[in-house]
């Protein structure tokens, strides 16, 4: 496994893996038009390029045997999708292609989030996960995350409920 901290030069690779992993994860449970609209909006050159250039966001690309397997996106400060959590680090995106799941990549991604949070003096990690994504919810619970709130995630024209989960780092 190779982990690369991504920058603006990695836009196309990040765009490709972002679209692949999101579509693979959610296409069976969502309307195709909503999914395509979201993929264009969320992972377009301008939006994703701005996220890569933001000094309060951190992207990591995961390679397995030379193949891009997935990625991780972390946020602090104003880059977070919820702004009342200044003392926290957000795990905004953690996606891997299905064929690479079960190989410890998710655990490594959470470990990177822990390291980055501690380096930046944050006291907790937090994330949002779709209420219908039971495998992800179970994964996070096994790693010490607990539910604390919810927010709305808009996929195309569909308003969906995300469960917000947090993990205290000093606990």
Task: Give short descriptive properties of this protein.
171 residues, alpha+beta, Aminopeptidase, seven-stranded mixed beta sheet, 7 strands, 35% helix, globular, Bact_Acetyltransf, acyltransferase, transferase, GNAT family N-acetyltransferase, GNAT_dom
Overview of this protein structure:
The chain has 171 residues and is an alpha+beta fold. It has 5 helices and 7 strands. The chain has helices at residues 11-26, 32-42, 45-53, 105-119, 134-142; strands at 2-5, 57-64, 67-75, 88-96, 124-130, 146-155, 158-168. Helix 1 (11-26) crosses helix 3. It starts with a strand and ends with a strand. The model has no long low-confidence stretch (mean pLDDT 95). Residues 1-170 form the N-acetyltransferase domain. This is GNAT family N-acetyltransferase. InterPro entries: Acyl_CoA_acyltransferase, Bact_Acetyltransf, GNAT_dom. Keywords: Acyltransferase, Transferase.
Quick overview of this protein structure:
This protein is of the alpha+beta class.
Set out the fold topology.
Layout: E1 2-5, H1 11-26, H2 32-42, H3 45-53, E2 57-64, E3 67-75, E4 88-96, H4 105-119, E5 124-130, H5 134-142, E6 146-155, E7 158-168
Parallel strand pairs: 4-5
Antiparallel strand pairs: 1-2, 2-3, 3-4, 5-7, 6-7
